[in-house]
């Protein structure tokens, strides 16, 4: 649980501008803390405000002159975002006027200070208005870089992910009650049979695994999917890069080695963020130091890819045998680190305009091939649809193809993923204990307890103050 020092530091009255700095129609200043009822009469020359009712009022300077006409909203504790007395001031948005209003608020009492980044949301968490998952979802909504990411973060904020975790925790609690009772009072209470214990445990393991798989997929929404275009020189990598991003970003020329550095652009496909990366062409016997550096960087990008598009010349490729294709895959894998051998690779047979072939997608021995013409933007939609419908996360081999479904449309942080993995390992250890001994013992009970405690960390319990500071410091001031 949070220590007293952390709670005590959150009792000051704080204020900050909650809207982005700039010229606009409306700027919002938020004030939260015990001094809000004292601030209202001095600032607005009104004894009190009707809770949750917007009022159009002047803000007065210390000499009694009017600084600005604003909309004022008062939210009394505990029925506010932070759980504290909260005042919102809605005025014109401009750097100077908002600073003037903020300075005026600070002058009402020496015990009011500027809020730290994320401090309003942190107080909402401390006061039990939201859990840590929902707090993280707020900054994910603000920083969402795609439609699906924003939609998914909203689902998190509504508590959908938290509900699923709590359902698993309830099952674990029920199992722990039976386990610890059977150990301490085996003669006095009804003890679960071995079969029923295994069944309960398998049910929980299935739930965790299902959530973990969904979490791996949904992590793509926050971070996007990294697609690396690679191949030998002059096969049309840069043309494919330009066709995918929809603009002439890369230089296209018949000369070998046009691309020597890494080119990076982001696109959205079906609401999902894709990082498209163009790399230098792979070739042997390079004497040019710049080209060597380019290939080294290309290899680095390959190893960090979620999906590799290896481009070959379809015109020269017409006579390739299946063995030749297998050699291509083997050569690509040799460039990868051992831990990333499972990175999906798709062969792009470019220049179909020269080979006079029909654009198509097909498989040979579980390897995917797409024939297209990047130069004439022909077959690019075929590739885009393939990427959308075959998203997988590189580190997890058992994820199903495809992504968009309403049940799993929840954004995920790596913190959540790590917790699910640790809990899953403890549950598997518990199952192995039970299978080997055929009865419930202290070691089995300890593994179940550790799995339970890991999952609780998702909501912030047993979370260190340092971790909380790290999480909330990523928020903007005013949230």
From TrEMBL:
Its EC number is 3.6.-.-. It is found in: Cytoplasm. Gene3D superfamilies: P-loop containing nucleotide triphosphate hydrolases, Probable tRNA modification gtpase trme, domain 1, tRNA modification GTPase MnmE domain 2. Keywords: Cytoplasm, GTP-binding, Hydrolase, Magnesium, Metal-binding, Nucleotide-binding, Potassium, tRNA processing. Its cofactor is K(+). It is an enzyme of class 3 (hydrolase). PROSITE patterns: G_TRME (PS51709). GTP binds at residues 234-239, 278-281. Residues 224-392 form the TrmE-type G domain. This is tRNA modification GTPase MnmE. It comes from Candidatus Blochmannia ocreatus.
